[in-house]
Amino acid sequence: GRRRLPRLTRCHTVTESGQQRIPVGYVRRAHGIHGDVVVRGLVADAAERFTVDRDLMSDAASTTTLRIVSQRMNGVDFLLHFEGVDSREDAEALVGTQFLIERDQRRDLDSDEWWVEDLVGCDVVDLDGQAIGRVSDVAVGAAQDRLVLETLDGRRCEIPFVGQLVPAVDMDSRRITVDLPEGLIE
């Protein structure tokens, strides 16, 4: 079957304590004259994260948290109004602001789901346990996602992230087992 990756960006920031913060959305643009902003969600559970009376951690220079006072949908985006953001100028100052969560606040995953940032750096081995390389990135695609592999001899190749080719992902040992057809990475 198809392996699934939650739609979560690879970007993150690191706090002073070394804790990664992960973006869950960002302000695309101001909307209207009363301080509303258009927010694009970056995660599958965005609708649960952008609710009224919720405080959002932000990377904005002016404030670290913003409280949502109203929310409605605007196509695939969220139209939000924050406490204290009452003019178009206030809203425009927030354009580009990212909303962040701590790594441990991510949603629980199904057994066939992994976070992109957790896969990067995993060792890749064949069915006999022989090292092939390491995951350097994940290419997220509409039809299927692909593991970007840096081979032991320094070449780069992509492996479709599907159950037939990737029968095992062991996050405890940070090891991904692949069953590749002849010539796929040669």
From TrEMBL:
BP terms from Gene Ontology: rRNA processing
Full protein name: 16S rRNA processing protein RimM
Keyword Magnesium: no
GO molecular function annotations of the record: ribosome binding
SUPFAM superfamilies, alphabetized: PRC-barrel domain, Translation proteins
UniProt keyword annotation of Cytoplasm present: yes
Stored NCBIfam families: 16S_RimM
RimM N-terminal domain mapped to chain residues: 24-105
Any one GO cellular component localisation term in the record: ribosome
HAMAP family, sorted: Ribosome_mat_RimM
Native species: hydrothermal vent metagenome
InterPro entries: PRC_barrel-like_sf, PRC_RimM, RimM, RimM_N, RimM_N_sf, Transl_B-barrel_sf
Segments forming domain Ribosome maturation factor RimM PRC barrel: 117-184
Keyword list, A-Z: Chaperone, Cytoplasm, Ribosome biogenesis, rRNA processing
